[in-house]
Amino acid sequence: MPPIELVVTGLVALLVGAAIAAAILAPRRRQAAADAERIVRDARAEADSLTKSAALEAERKAAERRDAFDKEVAETLAEIKQSQNRLAKREDNLDRKMEDLGVREQGLDARARELDNRDRGLDERESAIDGLRDDLSRRLSEVAKMTTEEAREAFMAEVRVEAEHDAAALTREVIEEAEQKALERSREITLQAIQRFAAEHVADSTVRSIKIPSDDMKGRIIGREGRNIRAIEKATGADILVDDTPGVISVSCFDRVRQAIAAESLQKLVADGRVHPSRIEEIVEQTRRDISERIVKHGNEAVLEANIRGLNPKIVEAMGKLHFRTSYGQNVLRHSMEVAYLSQIIADQLGLDGQIARRCGFLHDIGKAMDHEMEGGHPAIGMEFARKHGEKSEAVLNAIGGHHGDIAATTPYTPIVMAADAVSGARPGARRESMELYIKRLEQLEGIAMEQPFVDEAHAIQAGREVRVIVDAKKADDVQTFAIATAIAKRVEEEMTFPGEIKVTVLREVRAEATAR
Questions:
Q1: Is the CB of residue 248 less than 8 Å from the CB of residue 211?
Q2: What separation in angstroms does the CA of 173 have from each of 8, 167, 454, 473, 489?
Q3: Is the pTM for the entire model greater than 0.90?
Q4: Is residue 356 within 8 Å of residue 409, measured between CB atoms?
């Protein structure tokens, strides 16, 4: 029993005993009451003291238990947290291990596939080696019957064929790569030059017709026994063509200056009406002076239009003569102006000096002004003429002498002039040629193509600007087809003269046919 209850029980017993004693012992009641009151006070004080002590002890024990419980809870939570961290780390480690296992599994699969491929490759190589071994055995049997020199020649022939095949393949690869890099830039420069230049179509001819008012005048031009027409031909150096065509006399001459002198002299004689040898000589001389003055005028106008400075008067006069000169029906002076302009455009696009390029293009065909009078090609004649008359620029001299590839190009302006010359000559309406020369050029083009090995057919199309070649697909492979196209183009460049460019297209077609029954 708790102490408080014991105390209370004792107090009750005492009170009961006191009451009995008071009843029995009346006299001692007051003394007992006083004692009882005192005892009660003491008991109450003691009880309060015990109660406070018990409460304090209970509170202390409760606080101790609470602290112990909190400590135990904290320790438990810490252990749980540590367990959770360990579980999280184990989970991460497991994830990484699973990923590593997946990667390793993929690698093992790839390795297995690679090993399978290698096995198949080894099987194929083994089969190929067996075939080579059989072929080698056969060849050794053949070689055993040869002399050392014959075996060496056979070996060299085989090596040469393989080397040519490899060289053709390498050439194709290098050319295609270079063409791919240069084609876009070159096409852009050329198209810009063409688009920025527009010129009229030309149709000059080496034959010029003169109208005659009547057949009587035609007879007077001919003269007694042809003396007048012989006098005209002798004085002018041109051929006078008189046929049955009424009202027309033709003047033919490859020297357009002499042709112009003869034609204008005839016009003056027809207008004057007096036709005899002395009058003919007088008119021809007068016309020659007029033409000479006109040549100088045309030269000065061309130099001024092209904005070329510092030219010798002889060079200016030679350029004026080109006004009367044609090439495939194209006026050479206008052609020179075109080339000058195009050369400047291309040079500007390439970051070079446009002034020098224009001068090179303007003077590149100057040799045509005197190639009828001197031996040699017009590039060499023109270069020597320009050097003789004060042209000191190496770029200009090299462009004049090398624009047809007669000499090596030493400056970048020479290939520029070559390109501009080709553009000017190849543009629509720039040149024309006779039907005979046209057909001859097509036949030559097709003949060059047919001379190549494995070629079955060759057809010139696009007015001779393209040749289509068909090869035997059973004899020529793709590499040989490319080599054939290159060989044809090279021979065309070396053996033919043509404006612009000629495209060579080689076709190799394989057809497989089968019939189901």
A1: yes
A2: 122, 10, 22, 21, 17
A3: no
A4: no
Q: How confident is the model at residue 359 (pLDDT cuts 50, 70, 90)?
A: very high
What's the residue count for the chain?
517
Classify 207-426 by CATH class: alpha beta
Q: Which two tokens stand for residue 32?
A: 């007992």
Query: Residue 17 contacts by C-beta under 8 Å, 6 or more apart in sequence?
Result: none
pLDDT in tens, 157-213: 777 777 776 777 777 677 677 666 655 555 555 545 544 554 443 444 445 677 777
Among the listed residues 264, 269, 211, 219, the one whose alpha carbon sits nearest the alpha carbon of residue 238: 264
Q: Tell me the CATH architecture of domain 435-507.
A: 2-Layer Sandwich (3.30)
How far apart, in whole angstroms, are the C-alpha atoms of residue 441 and residue 462? 13
265-321 residue pLDDT tens: 888 888 877 878 888 888 888 888 888 888 889 889 988 888 888 889 999 988 988
d(CA 309, CA 359): 9
Give dist(CA 305, CA 301) in Å, integer: 6
**Exposure class string for 148-179: b at 16+ Cβ within 10 A, else e:** eeeeeeeeeeeeeeeeeeeebbeebeeeeeee
237 CB-contact burial (10 Å; exposed 0-12 / middle 13-18 / buried 19+): middle
